[in-house]
Specification:
This protein is mainly alpha-helical and 104 residues long. The protein contains two helices and two strands, in the order ααββ. It has a domain of 57 residues. Helix 1 packs across helix 2. The radius of gyration is 28 Å and the shape is flat. The N and C termini lie far apart (77 Å).
Amino acid sequence: MYQLGHRFLPGKSGNPAGRPKSAFKDNFDQLQAKQQMADIGTQIYRENYEEIILAMCNQAIKGNVQAAVYLRDSLIGRPKETVGIENTDNKAFTVTITAQESKL
């Protein structure tokens, strides 16, 4: 009764035992461990935020661009962009992007 091109017999499950009961628990345990790590990281940041910010400032002064961008974005926000769309001939669009002056 088995036909070529079919993986399973009609009416028969390809996984008769089903998903292992431990699969859900393993996934839940992994999520719980990730949440605990995030909580520990948050606690460390809250307890040491002044030292962390000072270290970021020192890194930015030494030329670490990522530290400088992080500080800029955290303190004054990301630069906003204005996008203008102009439809002059009803066929094509012209897009103009203008950067705003920095607040620094």
